[in-house]
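Q: Could you fold this chain for me?
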Amino acid sequence: MINKARLIALTQKVIQFDSQNPPGKEAALARFIKKDLESLGLKVQSYSFQKNRPNIVGTLRGNLPRRRAAREAVLITPHIDTVPLGRGWRFDPLGGKIHQGKIYGRGASDDKGNLACSLEVIRSLVEDKVFLRKDIILAATVDEETGSHFGILPLLARGILRPQAALILDSDAFDLIIAQKGLIHCRVQIFGKKAHAAYHWLGTNAIEQAAEIIQRLKQRQFPYKRHPLLRGPTKNIGTIQGGDKVNMVADFCEFALDLRYLPGMDSQKVLREVKGIIRQATSKFRIVIDDLQHPYEIDRHHPFVETYLHTARKMGYSASLKGSEGATVMTFFKKYGIPAFAAGCASRGTAHTTDEYVSIENLYRGAKLLEVFLKEYDQK
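A: Sure. Below is the predicted structure, expressed as structure tokens.
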């Protein structure tokens, strides 16, 4: 049985670990998770792909024949890193303070509330002596906030995780995220020519060229087919820098571009269009790709999806199918043919904000839903 008081205390505890990323400070929290799972008798492994950044993988073994139980396993995976604390908090961002039915702190919704729920559910199943047929794998991963290069990506690439299905615990208010946009993060570098500002016609101003390119990019609407769960493609200029001094013509400018594109769109075609826009202003440029994630979509009628949705609605939850404008790690499972969707108990609209919180009621209901879903999945 889910113990509400224990779940609250556990959520406060994991919030109090500083796991900001950057710089990547997940080690202390990872050790806590490993010890917690080992105390329940689970097989627990630690995998580090960068120093002091361990991913923790614990397996609650099913009682089917060993190979089959592992082959039909379900993965539940929250991440343990958070974005930086930021300024302006009313509550201590590492305090886990309770106020008016909410637990406050960095990561409360993204993603430590979901982490606490998954740990409590495993403990509840063990304490209640629930003997499941299939393995449940809990992977608490690092580096989600900066691309998962030291987290879920190498765990999949090296075959450490090969479940039958994956539930990404990184969403709001029990809704199912079954589609998400692709992501391109790139830096556009413009090369001009230096000159004295008083004789600017002797130079080529890279900042002015960048400004022209940015305007063209913002005005350009990439062709796309409407999606029932997602808005159209988006573009955002996140940073810009260039020039040496006010009385010099800038010979270099770089801006960072965030592109989000829909299922059915091709990343290389999008990049070709970007290059075409840049070439209207200059031929002297370079695009540096920092991250590229493909769009993802799972069939809304997939049995894995329908089991969760049916379970939630049977329990009286107003769960619905949704798309994600942002990125979750579920896109990485596509390459390995592993069906995945995202769900969770986070409080809507609080992730990455000042005074981030998770509602205690959401936590409790989220843990109960996850436990019942795992039992339902086990019978399929």
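A (continued): The two ends are 22 Å apart (CA to CA).
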